[in-house]
Amino acid sequence: MDASPDALLDTGPALNAQEMAVLQVFLESQGRVISRNELSRRAGLVSVNARRCDSILVSLRRVLGAESIRTVRSRGWMLEPDVIDHARRLVGA
Predict the structure, then answer these.
(1) pLDDT bracket for residue 13 (50, 70, 90)
(2) Which residues touch 14 (CB under 8 Å, ≥6 apart)?
(3) Are 11 and 19 within 8 A, CB to CB?
(4) CATH, domain range 15-91
């Protein structure tokens, strides 16, 4: 195991701008369910295909873990509390 300072700061794969924006919305809304419309609006994705949120969530789950974003049927999604610190590191908060 590499114990260099750079290795300790490694947060995994880099996120693109849209993924970062969606993750930031989840961080700002901790403990709340976010609908697709609200997520699209707040993340600046209103001009893209409505299903783009779904593909971004797939990417975020790859980085944060499969159980990191809970789907709340017919309502939206929410970030699981146990991944908040990792998510903050990814967005540099």
Answers:
(1) low
(2) none
(3) no
(4) 1.10.10.10
Under DSSP, the state recorded for 2 is: -
> Is the separation of the CB atoms in 56 and 18 below 8 Å?
yes
Tell me the C-alpha distance between 79 and 65, whole Å.
11
Residue of 47, 58, 69, 53 whose CA lies nearest to 21: 53
pTM of the model: 0.82
Q: What is the pLDDT of residues 48-88, one digit of tens each?
A: 887 888 899 999 999 999 999 999 999 999 999 999 999 99
Query: DSSP string covering 23-64, please?
Result: HHHHHHTTTS-B-HHHHHHHTT-TTS-TTHHHHHHHHHHHHH
Give the number of other Cβ atoms within 10 Å of residue 92's Cβ: 8
